[in-house]
Design a protein that fits this description.
This protein is of the alpha/beta class. The protein is 41% helix and 19% strand. Helix 9 links the parallel strand 8 and strand 9. Helix 2 packs parallel to helix 11 and helix 8 packs parallel to helix 9. The protein is elongated.
Length: 295
Amino acid sequence: MRILFITFLISLLFSAVNAFAGDILVLQSMRVKPFDDALRGFKSVCKGESKTVLVGDAQGTDFVAMARKERPELILAIGAEALNRVKYIRDIPVIYSMVLNPEKIIGGAKNFTGVNMNIPPENYLSMLEKLNLSKFKIGILYDPAKSGNIVKKIQQTARSRKIEITAREVRHSKDVPEQLAEMRGSCDLFWMLPDTTVVTPETVEFILLFSQQNRKPVITFAGKYVDTGAMVSLEIDGFDLGKQAGEMANMILGGTAVSDIHNADARKSVMRINRKVAAKLGININGIDTPNLTN
């Protein structure tokens, strides 16, 4: 009887100490290829053991309580929904990935860091220079509540390169057609930002129609719009975004304080060109070498 009691106590102690056998609790918003790519990239470099939970398959779960019960050394949140579920945690380091505007979710919390989906303006402007489009007048529509900070960075960087930017504010997606029409005479090219006020299924259709009718190329942030009429896209590499997060995780697991690891923009991007659209718009891109093409 005494042996059984001691065995029971040992098992209780073991389960308390090892509520979660791994180092990292991964919360993934949903099963989609970009998020899967980010997780693969993370695991390719991160040295810690991990457990992955799909947020979409665990509706009603209190993920804050789960984290406190399992006591991981850190949490990886892939996607905005996953980050939302752990935004109130303050006693566990949290790394985010595949989130567009993480500061809108976490505010100034010091135990959060990660890699957002923003590609630095310098990358886009360098792409325009490579395509011989930097002399074009560039038009941007944006919601200041969602993209105000990135537009400020774009304007600052463009001024240093003597690239002309016209940026107009929109507060509702229904205002996009009117604002874009008013911009017709002041821009030669439209830059579509990942702003959910500006970019909706309805407005994208109008923007691409505007491009065709007015012979004004569209540059965008996602290859799917290149497939439907935009001329060129510069999009994130989800696998590399995950690798960046994995490198941050290794630092934390190695003893670096999360507050000493600064959040980062995506460091790698992929350019895709729709050559048929370029030809219709009379834009010569012969000699431009890119491994990702839409012909």
